[in-house]
C-alpha cells in the first residue's frame, strides 16, 4: 500500500464522534511523586472495555463502514488486544469475527477473545507477521481490519492525544509503547495538529526494537525478534508503509529492558493501583529510566523539562505472569 499521511485534526475529531459511546474517555492521573522524580502522569487505557486502547481503533475503523461491507464478517491479525477490540465491535454489530493470532499469545488474551465470540486461528509468529505485511489471510474473505496501518485506526488512536492536551495542555513529552506505530504516530499527529510542542517518544522492549534499528539506519529495517512476556509490542520490522509517518512524527525510540519493564509493572500496582501488561508498562519504564531517546542516524534526544505523560496502553496480563513479577522474579 502507499505510504500513509498523518490524520488531519478534522479526521481525528470525526473519529472521536465514531467511537463515542463505545470507547471510554480515560482520565489522566498524576503518579504520586517521589523525591528526585520528574512530574509523571498516566493515561490508563487499561480501563477501556477490552482492557486496552484498541477499542478506539476498532470502533473508528469499523464504525465508518456501510453495513453491506460487513456482510461476510470481519477479521484481523492480532497478538490479542486489537482482536478484542474488533471482536467486541463485531459482537455488538451482530457480525461474525475471526482472529489470526500468534500461537504464543497469552492465554488470558485468548480466553477474552473467545468470550467475545470470535473464532481463533492460531499460527506461528512468522505466518502471523506475513498477514500484517500482506493484509490478508487465505481462507478468510470478510473485511480485514489492519491493526496498525489503517488511516481510520490511526485516527481512532489519535483521540488519545486530544484528551491528553485537554487535561494537561502543558505536557512536555508523551511516552507511548511502540508495536507497529499506529498508536504512537496517531497520538503524535494529534499533538502536532493541535499546535502542541510536546515530543513523542516511542517505547520499545530490548527483545524487539525495530524502530530503534530503523532510526539508526535511516530506513525501515528488519531485526531478530525474541519472544518475551512483553507480547503486545515488537515485531520483525518497521512496516514499510509506516516508516514515513514514524520517521517524521516521532522524536525518538526509548528501548527498555525486561527488568525495567517488570519493575514498572510493580510500580504501577504499588503506586497507582493499575495493572499493566508488559507493553503497557514500557512507557513508564522509559520515563523512569531517564535515558535519552535514540534519534536518527545514531543521535540522542534528551527529554524536555516539564510534565511527562506515560500512556499505559493495556492491562491484559496473565495472572500467573503478574504474580511472578510481583514476587520480584522475571517471567
UniProtKB/TrEMBL annotation:
<keyword id="KW-0456">Lyase</keyword>
<dbReference type="GO" id="GO:0003941">
    <property type="term" value="F:L-serine ammonia-lyase activity"/>
</dbReference>
<dbReference type="GO" id="GO:0006565">
    <property type="term" value="P:L-serine catabolic process"/>
</dbReference>
<dbReference type="InterPro" id="IPR036052">
    <property type="entry name" value="TrpB-like_PALP_sf"/>
</dbReference>
<dbReference type="InterPro" id="IPR000634">
    <property type="entry name" value="Ser/Thr_deHydtase_PyrdxlP-BS"/>
</dbReference>
<dbReference type="GO" id="GO:0004794">
    <property type="term" value="F:threonine deaminase activity"/>
</dbReference>
<keyword id="KW-0663">Pyridoxal phosphate</keyword>
<feature type="domain" description="Tryptophan synthase beta chain-like PALP">
    <location>
        <begin position="24"/>
        <end position="302"/>
    </location>
</feature>
<dbReference type="GO" id="GO:0030170">
    <property type="term" value="F:pyridoxal phosphate binding"/>
</dbReference>
<dbReference type="GO" id="GO:0009097">
    <property type="term" value="P:isoleucine biosynthetic process"/>
</dbReference>
<dbReference type="InterPro" id="IPR001926">
    <property type="entry name" value="TrpB-like_PALP"/>
</dbReference>
<protein>
    <submittedName>
        <fullName>Pyridoxal-phosphate dependent enzyme</fullName>
    </submittedName>
</protein>
<dbReference type="GO" id="GO:0006567">
    <property type="term" value="P:L-threonine catabolic process"/>
</dbReference>
<dbReference type="InterPro" id="IPR050147">
    <property type="entry name" value="Ser/Thr_Dehydratase"/>
</dbReference>
<dbReference type="Pfam" id="PF00291">
    <property type="entry name" value="PALP"/>
</dbReference>
Amino acid at each position: 500500500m502507499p505510504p500513509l499521511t498523518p490524520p488531519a485534526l478534522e479526521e481525528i475529531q470525526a473519529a472521536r464522534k465514531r467511537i463515542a459511546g463505545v470507547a471510554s474517555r480515560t482520565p489522566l492521573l498524576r503518579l504520586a511523586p517521589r523525591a528526585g522524580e520528574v512530574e509523571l502522569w498516566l493515561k490508563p487505557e487499561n480501563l477501556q472495555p477490552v482492557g486496552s486502547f484498541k477499542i478506539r481503533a476498532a470502533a473508528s475503523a469499523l464504525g465508518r463502514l456501510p453495513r453491506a461491507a460487513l456482510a461476510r464478517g470481519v477479521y484481523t491479525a492480532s497478538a490479542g488486544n486489537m482482536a478484542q477490540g474488533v471482536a467486541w465491535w463485531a459482537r455488538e454489530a451482530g457480525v461474525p469475527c475471526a482472529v489470526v493470532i500468534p500461537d504464543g499469545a497469552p492465554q488470558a488474551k485468548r480466553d477474552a477473545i473467545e468470550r467475545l465470540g470470535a473464532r481463533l486461528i492460531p499460527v506461528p509468529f512468522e505466518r502471523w507477521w506475513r498477514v500484517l505485511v500482506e493484509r490478508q489471510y487465505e481462507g478468510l474473505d470478510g473485511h480485514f481490519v489492519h491493526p496498525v496501518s489503517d488511516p481510520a485506526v490511526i485516527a481512532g488512536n489519535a483521540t488519545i492525544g486530544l484528551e491528553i492536551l485537554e487535561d494537561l495542555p502543558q505536557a512536555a513529552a508523551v511516552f507511548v509503547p511502540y508495536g507497529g506505530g499506529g498508536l504512537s504516530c496517531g497520538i503524535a499527529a494529534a499533538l502536532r495538529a493541535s499546535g502542541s510542542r510536546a515530543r513523542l517518544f516511542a517505547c520499545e522492549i530490548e527483545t524487539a526494537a525495530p524502530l530503534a534499528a530503523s532510526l539508526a539506519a535511516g530506513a525501515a529495517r528488519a531485526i531478530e525478534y525474541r519472544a518475551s512476556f512483553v507480547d503486545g509490542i515488537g515485531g520483525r520490522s518497521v512496516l514499510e508503509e509506516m516508516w514515513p509517518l514514524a520517521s517524521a512524527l516521532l522524536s525518538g525510540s526509548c528501548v527498555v529492558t525486561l527488568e525495567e519493564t517488570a519493575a514498572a509493572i510493580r510500580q504501577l500496582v504499588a503506586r497507582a493501583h493499575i495493572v499493566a501488561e508488559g507493553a503497557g508498562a514500557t512507557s513508564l519504564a522509559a520515563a523512569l529510566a531517564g535515558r535519552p531517546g535514540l534519534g536518527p542516524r545514531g543521535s540522542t534526544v534528551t527529554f524536555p523539562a516539564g510534565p511527562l505523560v506515560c500512556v499505559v496502553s493495556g492491562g491484559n496480563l496473565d495472572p500467573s505472569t503478574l504474580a511472578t513479577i510481583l514476587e520480584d522474579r522475571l517471567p
